[in-house]
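Reviewers asked in the last cycle whether our approach scales beyond single polypeptides. To address this, we selected a multi-component target totalling 644 residues and predicted its structure end to end. The input consisted of the following lines:
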Amino acid sequence: MTETLEFINPEDVRRISCIGGGPIGAGWAAHFLAQGYDVTSYLHEPSEQQAFHDIVDTAWISLEALGLAEGASRARLTLTYDLEEAVSAAQFVQESAPENLKLKQSLYQQLGDLVPENIVISSSTSGLTMTEIQRHCSTPQRTVVGHPFNPPYLLPLVEIVGGEKSSKAAVNWSCEFYQVAGKAPLVMNKEIPGFIATRLQEALWREALHMVANGEATPQQIDTALINGPAPRMALLGQCMAFHVACGEGGMATNLDQFGPALKLPWTRLKAPELTQELRDRMVNGCNEMAADRHFKELAAERDRGIVAILNAITALQNNSS
Amino acid sequence: MTETLEFINPEDVRRISCIGGGPIGAGWAAHFLAQGYDVTSYLHEPSEQQAFHDIVDTAWISLEALGLAEGASRARLTLTYDLEEAVSAAQFVQESAPENLKLKQSLYQQLGDLVPENIVISSSTSGLTMTEIQRHCSTPQRTVVGHPFNPPYLLPLVEIVGGEKSSKAAVNWSCEFYQVAGKAPLVMNKEIPGFIATRLQEALWREALHMVANGEATPQQIDTALINGPAPRMALLGQCMAFHVACGEGGMATNLDQFGPALKLPWTRLKAPELTQELRDRMVNGCNEMAADRHFKELAAERDRGIVAILNAITALQNNSS
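The resulting structure, written as structure tokens, was:
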């Protein structure tokens, strides 16, 4: 059966079902509507309807500012409280039910039987693994994690990873689909707690909490430091390339060879891994691949233009609102 | 003597001396020139001159795009290889010599005698403390750390902290001066390794290195995750307010009370501090102060407008360069 599984062409998807009416589920619905899809949203009960519409309407302001796809309309949204009806015509299912393992396992047991098995079901979970979620699902091959970042109608990231029983084909299909659907997909090779983005953010967050706990900084100082220091650069380049470009001609190799000893300094409470030759090479090769054939002066000029654009955009916004 | 010390009004500063011709020293010179100051830069030797000018010229492109102050001109730059001449007319000294403690101690010993003691001398050091640097200085009261973020002509942050012998007046004066000079000053109460911004960034960086070392992520995945996930939000709000706004009406209180247990999850290799009532209150009060009287819906709308502005600015830039 699994061998003959044929997924729809990602570009042919027209009808998407979104399970869940909270900020994540409603945010997804808004995003897919803005991309021109027909969206059916499943809400648990009618009392959720007002909050759901509020989120979609709020999101729409930003989605219009980012640019709607041709034919995109909130009129293409259907609401239902019947799970079977919600997924009956779906060509893709984005599940954003509450973060409760038993609830999700039971839901995937139902969805596994309701949804044709050549349709991918993707979970917005941020804290559970698909290996756990898909445990009682009769058709787990096409289930994956597709973890967005909040707010999902604005931040492009979707972290994709399969569980033990997920097929490689479903993971690859999801990556292609999210790309077509205007997202920035990131396929992970391993199921790890927090995926990638949250782990990075959480390390920073816990260091911040330590500093506040120890009277070394206030929340105001934490935010001032980030906004005016590392964050604009990180929004443009990430962190690996930020260091690569900062080190001139030598790039990441200079960073690690010259400043490697600083990894032993108490500049955070998190101890660094040992800087082995293998780790050094992975970092250097990865950055060189991202730099491709661009000279560091070109990269630095691009960085500067980008930071100027970000700072000017924020300033313009502040001037408009004041 | 120290009681009668009278600093110049920060708004009356016209002449600045920059010590050091590397990327930080040259970047500072470019920034101050763009703000309309007369700048005298001290370079160690003539061989540094070409690289120095290259940095200033590169920086100038961005500084023009950000907007020059009236009268700002690169013609108001003077170069010298004579330390005494470099500081003879200075109303403020920004020191960006190499990160070598003995070298800096000897330099502050000289500067301490050369520069009138009502003139503030501020160090760009990122890894040393002013308590160490000022050890052999005869007039240490007016010496402080004023740590910029790279590139110093673009990122607004300056972390200010005094050493044991620095006067509170010098620290306060520096804060006022950097504000007047177009920077975002952050006065710290404690000398801690890495100050605030680098500690936050370093925690994230070390988690990234662990993930690459363990085959959990590649440098490309690290950067993709940051650029499309937490970083644009962080550039706008920092991290405390990002969580505060994400949690709706309840704000940071909801974040900590509801998701506090997640601090025990293995979402990073850095263990969180214990979430005491005191830590909780500091976080909640800090965020409430930043929110002031703005309702969370207003904050969320501001966040969305800001993220849209940042994403659109980056997209416009990419379209222009392709």
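Chain A touches chain B through 116 residues (CB under 8 Å). We regard this as preliminary and will revisit it once experimental data from Aim 1 are available.
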